[in-house]
């Protein structure tokens, strides 16, 4: 009688330790060699109080409410037409500056778009947070 050979498991075990070592070495390499960009944010701090007398420059108020509606001096407008409205008002009073008053729940994209438009056209601009109880232009 022949004895049957017992066959072992034909599947070979793969040792994962060297592969994990390589992955961790690559991870450390990419972390060490990565360059991190310092992105510039919008400075929301008010300027320090000065001893000089306040100038009576008129302010153009741009309000963005919590429903993302935009108002320029209490008049409703599209977020894409703010620059045109501000330019029209600055034609009458060239020394005027823009104050963007933003509600807490307003979209940041709208605020940044208006801010960038003002800065790109050399219009003095600042941002403030809308008071909790104040409503917009309607």
Automatic annotation (TrEMBL):
Q: Does the keyword Coiled coil belong to this entry? A: no
Show the GO MF annotations: transmembrane transporter activity
UniProt keywords (A-Z) are: Cell membrane, Membrane, Protein transport, Transmembrane, Transmembrane helix, Transport
List, in alphabetical order, the GO biological process terms annotated in this UniProt record: protein transport
Q: What is its main location?
A: membrane
Annotated localization: Cell membrane
Q: Which GO terms describe its cellular component?
A: plasma membrane
**What are the boundaries of the signal sequence?**
none
> Transmembrane segments in this chain: where?
20-37
The record's listing under InterPro entries reads:
ExbD
Q: Does the keyword Membrane apply?
A: yes
Task: Kindly give the membrane topology term recorded for this protein.
Answer: Single-pass membrane protein; Single-pass type II membrane protein
What does the similarity note say? Belongs to the ExbD/TolR family.
Protein name listed in UniProt: Biopolymer transporter ExbD
